[in-house]
Amino acid sequence: MARPRKRRRVCGLPNHKVFGPVNSNYGGESIILSVEEYEVIRLIDLEGLEQTECAERMDVARSTVQRMYSEAKRKVADSIVNGKMLRIEGGDYILCEIDRDKCIPCNRGGHRHRRGRG
């Protein structure tokens, strides 16, 4: 039996979840970026964390962060270069609530968690 997948800690959901071509007649392929992949990009590229720091905040191994980051960058590049819709949805994560003063590992919320499957 395979080991159960460890949930990743995510400190907030994105405010905007769909990106893509401005053409209102778009009917092409969409790319799905999971909430965890979004969080990795946010932490590394926006907040400037190293992969090790990102792994600590998300409560996973550095190799997991590296794998998610590589996949997320590939998806974003495919969306930009090939003009595909990018949707942020789904995943298997633990969400820290928005009480940002109480979450010690990520400084973004208390530890009342909810399932984030979609």
UniProtKB/TrEMBL annotation:
It comes from the Bacteria. InterPro entries: RNA_pol_sigma_r3/r4-like, UPF0251, WH-like_DNA-bd_sf. HAMAP family: UPF0251. PANTHER family: PTHR37478, UPF0251 PROTEIN TK0562. Belongs to the UPF0251 family. This is UPF0251 protein CUESP1_0744.
